[in-house]
Amino acid sequence: MALVDRKLFGPGPGNPYPEATSALGQPLLGHLDPVFLSLMDETCDRLRTVWGTTNARTIPLSATGSAGMEASFVNTVSDGDVVVVAVNGLFGQRMCDVAARCGAEVVPVEHEWGAPVDVDRVLSAHPSPKVVAAVHAETSTGVRSDIAALGAGKGDALLLVDAVTSIAGIELRADDWGIDVGYAGTQKCLGVAPGLAPFTINDRAFARRVEKPQSWYLDLGLLGGYVGEASGSGGRTYHHTAPTAMVASLHAGLGRILEEGLENVWARHAEAGRLLQSGLLEMGLELFAQEGSRLPELTTVKVPDGVDSAAVRKILLERHGIEIGAGAGAYAATVWRIGLMGHNARPDAALLALAALADALAEVGWKP
Amino acid sequence: MALVDRKLFGPGPGNPYPEATSALGQPLLGHLDPVFLSLMDETCDRLRTVWGTTNARTIPLSATGSAGMEASFVNTVSDGDVVVVAVNGLFGQRMCDVAARCGAEVVPVEHEWGAPVDVDRVLSAHPSPKVVAAVHAETSTGVRSDIAALGAGKGDALLLVDAVTSIAGIELRADDWGIDVGYAGTQKCLGVAPGLAPFTINDRAFARRVEKPQSWYLDLGLLGGYVGEASGSGGRTYHHTAPTAMVASLHAGLGRILEEGLENVWARHAEAGRLLQSGLLEMGLELFAQEGSRLPELTTVKVPDGVDSAAVRKILLERHGIEIGAGAGAYAATVWRIGLMGHNARPDAALLALAALADALAEVGWKP
Q: CA of B134: how far to CAs of A10, A92, B72, B127, B218, in Å?
């Protein structure tokens, strides 16, 4: 099959950092090789930095970000537990489904898509939930919500946060903000191919975990024998075969980020997003996400009236090799999602996205 | 971190086929890119060939082989269902745990480790199980069991088979043998890095599936919208972000296998295993797996009396860059596992494993 070289400017995956791609081609290591175990330990350390946590139990789960969501719920929620979910997009909706499969009494707090989470409504939705769950950066709408405020008001509840599209892209401080359980993905601002779910859980949540969760694969009690908890003890228990190539790639991607400096990486995402969003507005397009809550790394823009969303995306893909995303859910045909994440969070990528979109819009006859 | 180049002669992962490694370094594709969707479809076709099936629902699950086990049970077993499990090693034991977490009434049929599954005992263990489960090639013991005989006698039960260490290494004919649900891993004889679980389920099992399984991530009803069932219809539903780099690598590894010819690949594994096992016997070592049921791709050998298993493995790793496996479970210190799988199923690898083991045994002072 001929190589196809895309600019991945959709909602993810983005183009990985070159260091992350190079690592995939290195000789494979066994999952119990001492060299690999050191690399895994260092990967967990690096993940702690991007999560903003000191949690011992910070690991890359061996599946994609959606499995991180599942791991978060199956390890903390069992029959009859009350789970308040802030729903302001597709991933909040999904949390309700996943929590319900754990037997939770789900209390969804619905929001208009495009708006951030209303912290007061979420915190007053139930007097004593076991878990309050929210999405930090909604991939479906391009909206950022205030996790720190949820953490400050959570009371006795555990705060469970989706950081799939925020990690290593915008400010994220799990410990300072009171996040008890968090999951992410590798294929967004971390700049690594999809396939792993960076996960973190603090002692408070671990102490209240489900002793024998319905998932064997994602059972943190079993996983602890292989990573994290066993560090330094010399004893590692086999649980499953870690995806060693992907872990090596994550290790390298994180190395690139920390070498640049995490706050510099955040600033680079902010600048690329600012360039893109101001350019889109100058072109006469409208942004979808509410002003003041727009993610720099993932921009949602309204498809202009009379323009065929798919036709424009096809021109971008076929003429320019650029992938952007359709909208999600009810907005599939009326919103585009443009991601400048990880390696793509650069001014030149922003300019290229703008120029190519202008070209495609002209091609379909749109005038502002 | 300096590159370390190992010969992975343990129970897996093995060294990938070069084609599979090269594919990991190719430009990343998005999971909804038409080029990627074609590649995914072709990957599923190729998987059908190595499974020996025409099942439409034949897909690479986005997690490792152990998640394939979990997917098999959560989609077929719910509260109170009777599951007969043939237990002749670690992975049969694990099946019992995973099935129990689905609420199954588990009927384990215990065997001595090193022996193949006793088909008559398994089939007579319960008059009307919903599922009969067995491991085709026990990675913990190096033993092959007769799946065709289980299929011939299964009656109304669904036959659920672990093919993690058999797929693309020894004869496997899912449809001819009556396998209803099967899972595998990529890191053994398929010659690809760990990270995906090739999975297949036939119409008979799919019709009897759990409508809303406890796992959202592994829910076949949801997964069907993205792969397999939607093929040709043009409509693909987003479920989760497929690990596109790993799928491209699997596609390439399968391409290599099918170019060589599946039966030729089986013959290559048989020959490498024969060379290794006859060489070990000539050295005066004893094999662990019962004669007549020995896997060519994974050889279990008894650690000679008075020899420190770990010391020998350390010499192999540090002097020769060769990884072999310790034993599993109660045999951790008394058995070695030597895998010649996928790209390593070659005469030169067999000779090297023998020569290096002889050197290490001499180093620790062992004489036959």
A: 43, 39, 12, 17, 20
Three-state DSSP at B265 gives: helix
**Packing angle, helices B244-260 and B34-51, rounded to 10:** 50
| Overall size of chain B counted in residues | 368
What CATH number does domain A7-13+262-363 carry, 3.40.50.720, 3.40.50.410, 3.30.300.30, 3.90.1150.10? 3.90.1150.10
Distance separating alpha carbons of residues B271 and B277, to the nearest angstrom: 10
Structure tokens at B223: 């997964």
Q: Report how far residue A70's alpha carbon sits from residue A197's, in angstroms, rounded to the nearest whole number.
A: 10
CA closest to A4 among chain B residues: B27
**Is residue A38 exposed (0-12), middle (13-18) or buried (19+ Cβ within 10 Å)?**
exposed
Q: Please check the confidence at residue A103 and state whether its pLDDT lies above 90.
A: yes
For residue B51, give the nearest of B141, B142, B223, B181 by alpha carbon. Answer: B181
DSSP H helices, chain B, are 18-24, 34-51, 65-74, 90-101, 119-123, 147-153, 174-177, 203-207, 220-223, 244-260, 262-282, 309-320, 347-363
Instruction: Mutation target for B interface from A74, A106, A217, A331: give the one with most B CBs within 10 A.
Output: A217
User: B21 contacts in A (CB within 8 Å)?
Assistant: 24-25, 28
Q: Is the ipTM of this complex over 0.90?
A: yes
Are B85 and B106 a contacting pair, CB within 8 Å?
Answer: yes
Among the partner-chain residues A6, A24, A243, the one whose CB lies closest to the CB of B25 is A24
From the centroid of its chain, how far is CA A245? 21
B146 vs chain A: nearest CA distance in angstroms?
25
**Mutation choice for A interface testing from B214, B222, B247, B259 by most A CBs within 10 A:** B214
Fold of A18-259: Aspartate Aminotransferase; domain 2 (3.40.640)
Say how far apart CA A147 and CA A134 lie, in whole Å. 8
B315 CA: distance to closest CA in chain A (Å): 13
Best probe of the B interface among A21, A42, A215, by most B CBs < 10 A, is A215
DSSP A287: B
Quick one: CA dihedral A83, A163, A193, A216, positive or negative?
Answer: negative
Contacts of A194 in chain B (CB under 8 A): 31, 241-245
Does the distance separating the beta carbons of A28 and B25 come in below 8 Å?
A: no
CATH 3.90.1150.10 in chain B is located at: 7-13+262-363
**Residues B84-109 pLDDT 10s:** 999 999 999 999 999 999 999 999 99
Given a cut of 50, whether residue B230 has pLDDT beyond it is no
Q: Which residues of B touch A245 (CB under 8 A)?
A: 24, 193-195, 246, 249
Q: How far apart are CA A153 and CA A120, in angstroms?
A: 9
pLDDT tens column, A271-324: 999 999 999 999 999 999 999 999 999 999 999 999 999 999 999 999 999 999
Structure tokens at A31: 């999952």
User: Chain A partners of B32 at a C-beta cutoff of 8 Å?
Assistant: 10
